[in-house]
Structures are given as structure tokens and as C-alpha cells.
Amino acid sequence: MYDKLNLYNPKIQVKIDFNTNPKIIMRVLKMIRAGHSSFVFCCLPGITKSLMSCYGVTEEEARNVDISGCNEMHIRGKESCMISALPNAAKAMEYVFTNGVDNVTGKQLGLKTGDVCDFKTFEEFYAAYLKQFTHMLDTIMDAARRYEKFVAQINPSVLLSATVESALQKGVDAYGFGLKYPTPSLLLCSFASTVDSILAVKELVFEKKKTTLSELQKALQNNWEGYEELRAEALSAEFKYGNGNEKADLYAVSFFRWFSVYVTGQKNSRGGVYKVGVPSTLHFISQGKVTMATPDGRKKGEEFSKNVAPVIGMERGGVTAMLRSALSTGPWLFSEAYVLDVMLHPSAVSGDDGLLAMKGLLDMYMKNDGISIQFNIFSAEKLRDAQAHPEKYKNLQVRVSGWNVLWNDLSFEEQEAYIKRAESIC
How many CB atoms lie within 10 A of CB 172? Predict the structure, then answer.
């Protein structure tokens, strides 16, 4: 009926395992290929491994997990969704180049890690970045611990509490202290943009010596104006996350795991620990607007990468290379949510062979502990036509981050971002 009525809302989360009826999976894939992008596949093997290893739930609890929100994972009747913060990893990169001064407020919000121009080695630079990001995370968690204990008073959830056995037994609100697993989460944002920025500094400054930290600092402060040739070098740098490149993936994996290990298990103020996830919701747009230019070639105000996907236009090695890069990061380390966006050209998935190719990508993802994956099937030509003639595409759907919108409801800038990515896969 969902297919017949051509609905785009509510979104549907399809939890699958190796024994899921393939007819169901193929039917969903056909719908996605036909334009129903309101589906996300949630892979139970990776989910179970993630939940059991990160905070010790039972196998039964993990396998019966509910998928809530966009693609967050919560133990049925014993846990609820509470996102405490969405740290902007690229903002810490800004603070390295400004010695901790925020470019929007002009305040000293980061650490004083020293004048970036004085760093002699990449190791010094990278160490300064991790110090800035650590300071940011500590500040965030300190603030979260202060307000989390009052959530039940500010936003009581009576209906939810009536469905939670432990809350009923204690006679308290579920969002207070009524859950078996009180696990608010931090969702990492601008992941690929940050990794590409780290790699750009390493390659352009310290390895190929195309520029200096002093010159790069000036370029970023001037939003790349007057430094167009250097920006072109940054955009075309050899090492970009999402291409199955061993060196690029090394830094992606290291950074991903560093964040996960640092945050996961730290105590919150509700009697539990923090979880981590990597859905960026719409913050990949809003955070981009308040972050200065970054070493990967991005200008101030431009959007960041979203979820676990590469920076738009940087996935040059094809979809299988992108999957290899994403899977190398260890999705199971993210016990709140982990989602990969895949955009494919219609010609790549046409006919029976194309449908099997989609199924093959999904199988590869699930066999390697992938957690959530969602597809957009577009051609740049169709999106350009939809932008020029919106009256012809009233039902065209787009998977944004963890939900669906109609193409005509996107702003011009958001449409341009999708078109740019579609052009990169043609």
C-alpha cells in the first residue's frame, strides 16, 4: 500500500538479517530504484555486535532493538533516544588555525595550542588538533551533565513512561531515572570534511611542500580569496576519504576510533554512560555556516560532509571503494547510530542485473558489520530538470539525512548540493 499510494512519509526502517526473506529485500530495493527513497536498511548483525560490545546489553536485548528517530538504536522498553550534543569536529580544526579564537563570536572558546605557523612537524599539528577536539568534547559533556538530570522536569514523557516497566516500578519519569540503560549520546558531525582537512595539511604542507602553514592560515582567513590555485590543489589532493585508499583510510579509522573510545563509557549524570553515533541530521548545513574555511578546500558557509559519506564530489573510486572505506572505520563502535549514504546513477542499477548489484552492495555492507545504509538513485540531468520545472516533479523524493523530503521543498542551495554529488557519479 505504501508503494501503491506513492507515499514519502512516514519513513520506513527495515531491520534485516541474513535470514530475512530476500523477496522483501528485493521489493524494497525495487521501490527505492523507482524513486521511493524513504527507506533505510538497518543490519542486525552489526547492530547486535555494536550494542553487546559497547555497553553490555544481552544478545536478546540487542536483537530485539527498536530503531527510533532517523536510525538510532535503543533497547526496547529499557532505553530512549536522548541526543545530548552534535560536536562539530571541523570546528576544532578552525581553532588550531586561530589558536582557539572562534571566528563567529571572537571569543576564546578553544584552547591556546600555539601559533600554527610555529609547528615544525605534522605530528605537532595533529596533536594540537586532538587537544582542541578533546577540549571541545570535555566542554560539551560537562554542560550535558549539568542539564541532563533536569530533562524529566523540563520535558516529562508521561506516555512513554507508561510503557517502561522500570519507570513504573520506580514511579518516576522514564527520562528521569526510570530506564535500565540511561545512555544519552553524542553524534559526530563533519567527519569526512575533518579527515580530508587533516590529510590536506599532511600532504600539501609537510609531504609535497606545496604551501606552508603560514600561507594556508592566510588562505583560510581570507576564505580562499586570492588563493584559488592553492584551493585547487586542496580540492584535488591525492588522499581523500571514501576511495578505498589505504593511507586516507588509516587516518579516517584512527580518528573515528579515537572519538569513539574517548567518549563511549564516560559517565553521564543519569546513572549511565555516553554512547556515540554519526548521523549528522541537518547540522552538516547549519554547522558549515558558522565554521571558517577548511584545509580540504571548502569555503566558509559551505556545508560539511554528512553522516559517514565522503565529502561531495570526492568519492572518485566508485561505490565499492566508498563502502570499503566506510566499513574499515568499525561501525560497531558506534552504539547509537551509524549510517552511510549511497548515491547511484540510474544506469548502474537498471534491469535485473542492476537490482542484483544493489543487493550485492547491501550484502557486502551487512557481512562486514555495517549498521544502517540508505540509497538515493538519481541522475544529475533529472535533478537539473526538476530544479527548472518543479511542476513536473511534485512527488520526487530525496533522502536527506535520516528522513525524506520532497525535492521541491529543498532550498536552491540544498538542491545544488545534491546535483553536485549526482554529477560526481555520472
Answer: 16
Closest CA to 92 of 325, 304, 337: 304
How much is the pTM?
Answer: 0.92
- pLDDT tens sequence across 208-251: 999 999 999 999 999 999 999 999 999 999 999 999 999 999 99
**3-class SS at 184?**
coil
Q: How many CA atoms lie within 13 A of 149 on its CB side?
A: 10
For 351, list phi and psi in degrees, rounded to 5. Answer: 70, -175
Contact (CB, 8 A) for 308 and 329:
yes
| Tens-place pLDDT, residues 97-132 | 999 999 989 999 999 999 999 999 999 999 999 999
State the DSSP H helix or E strand holding residue 344, giving kind and residue range, or none if neither: strand 339-344
Beta pairing class for 404-406 and 397-399: antiparallel
* Dist. CA 239–CA 216, nearest whole Å: 18
Q: Phi-psi region for residue 73, left (φ > 0), alpha (ψ -120 to 50) or beta?
A: beta
Cell 609537510: give the residue. Answer: 206
Return the closest-CA partner of residue 377 out of 46, 28, 42: 28
